[in-house]
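Table S2 (continued). Query chain:
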Amino acid sequence: MELDTRLVFSRLNFEFQILDENLKEEAQNEYHLLTKLHSDSMDKWLHSLQVKSMNCKCGAGTLVLGEMLGYIYKKLEHIENILLGSEIKYIELKSIGHTKQLGHGYIILDEDSLEIDREYYARLFMPTFPARCMPLFGIAVDKKILKVNKMSESDLRDFDGFIVSTEREMLKSRKAQN
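Corresponding output:
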């Protein structure tokens, strides 16, 4: 199947389930909860710091320190949630697998696990800093290919950024081999 994007190889954890009437409301609630967590005030502050650091001679150092502080803050918040018993409890999805490749708007699985033309709710676990779970909705266009049709703006930006950085690393690796 021909896709309208370049693909990069990446093996990531992926949980998914056909979106039926029983799951629809729960999936929407979890999607909004996880999306809200990713767009908290700390993330907005970090994004503002990224924008400001582009115009500053000290930019890279300030940005790294900001990211480190943000990471520490999120870890402390996570520990606090565990202690208070308010830890996020994910919906149990029926299928667990791995990605084989990623493209802008597409996720290719390593096995034939999808039913074509069915809508899915899924969680993709990204190895970003800090690591995070990205909830999404998509439609299977092949037994291995999920076309993403709903992902939060910040998750989509990070997903696309991950693809670009992986592609950049592949190109550097090829160049070094030649």
